[in-house]
């Protein structure tokens, strides 16, 4: 009987022998990964221990946050989620993984936007290089800079409230999820380069840009695991054809940058936006034009779905707890009395900051359901590390899922899965901040955090002061897809103006 090897080496290779050889190779690799890896003792789904495809399939199905949370409830703080990756939900995890500047996993390379020529702070995996690059763009995201742009946010919020008033007057169900996405996208265009995309003006998803983009980000999230797939879906040719659903936003952004860059003096200097600052960094030779283009498209992609979900999670959770809604409203009234004046129609960030209970509701809503749909993977350096009593060899990917961390009863107590804003008003609430991470943590945390807080505070205070909101079907839970970002939908509401 000929051996498999001799069969292959002979000229008479049959399809059957070739198939057998492939099978033997696959099974050998699977056995090695499952039983002879330094991570073999860590529990988790069998398939995950032998192939990355388990994680890819989980991501594509759109609820990896739920799946990973259940796995941690079943197996505890360490779950093997790929042959070389362990998901960590341990109290030392944030400090050891996110606050220690570990390199990001190569999965992040898919964060080059719109294609691999445009490396961004998201796609750069080396902490030192990423921090140096981010420094050049940081001024655009500082609270002091953003507050000089507050009137731009007010302008778009006013447009949104005109729609809300219309739905209220017509007594028709409103898909606030979609309108929040329009608002979030338009605000990124307005703040970055003074050109909203026109979603709020039209009142619909132009060319289905936003809905299709969320789906394509789903593919992009998995493409990070396969460099060839990344290059197939995001390359100079694809960018040139403009076939990707982001077309509208990319083209608007690129045109705005090109037009402003071509001018000797930026005429926006009298009414600056974020691009004004980034073009100055370009003029000073601190960044390249490609860096500015990449960072601008990243700002749109990262700031749209995440911000929409941020606004949604506040309204959805507070609305389903009418006493919380009323307490926020009472807080606004008390502040107005204390100040002896009415707050502006679009409440200012400064005023909204003076409402501790409202801020607690925002924080609690982001804890229960934040915009991040994946884990944050980092690579253990040479020499290895330990988390709790678990040792990890160098080269292992360790990831933290903020969703699991922020719902774990070991950190948050028995009501971990309940909306309870009061937990943030207790004396020892600072302790909880160790496990609170909707914006990520450390050198790679969200640079848009200040902008997010400004937008959420203003929207929350203005909306709940002036409107009653109830779900068309109060028993219906929202649905969502969690890819890189979570994006909820299907929770239509009736809005009613409190003061006509
Ligand atoms: C409630 C709203 C938001 C939340 C919860 C949020 C959360 C996050 C998270 C968790 C990350 C990933 C961090 C990591 O990989 O370690 C991220 C990245 C990022 N976010 Fe946000 N985000 C929000 C809104 C925004 C907004 C409004 C902008 C700006 C327009 C923005 C810009 C970015 C950028 C540019 C990145 C890439 C980070 C990098 O440079 O490495 N985000 N965000």
UniProtKB/TrEMBL annotation:
Organism the protein comes from: Podospora didyma
GO MF annotation, one: heme binding
Amino-acid positions noted as binding heme in the UniProt annotation, renumbered to this chain: 446
A Pfam entry, by short name: p450
Protein name per UniProt: Cytochrome P450
InterPro entries: Cyt_P450 (IPR001128), Cyt_P450_E_grp-IV (IPR002403), Cyt_P450_sf (IPR036396), Cytochrome_P450_monoxygenase (IPR050121)
Transmembrane feature ranges: 12-31
Cofactor(s) it depends on: heme
Domain of life: Eukaryota
One GO term of the biological process aspect: secondary metabolite biosynthetic process
The entry's keywords: Heme, Iron, Membrane, Metal-binding, Monooxygenase, Oxidoreductase, Transmembrane, Transmembrane helix
Keyword check for Transmembrane helix: yes
Cited PANTHER family: CYTOCHROME P450 (PTHR24305), CYTOCHROME P450 MONOOXYGENASE APDB-RELATED (PTHR24305:SF235)
Sequence similarity: Belongs to the cytochrome P450 family.
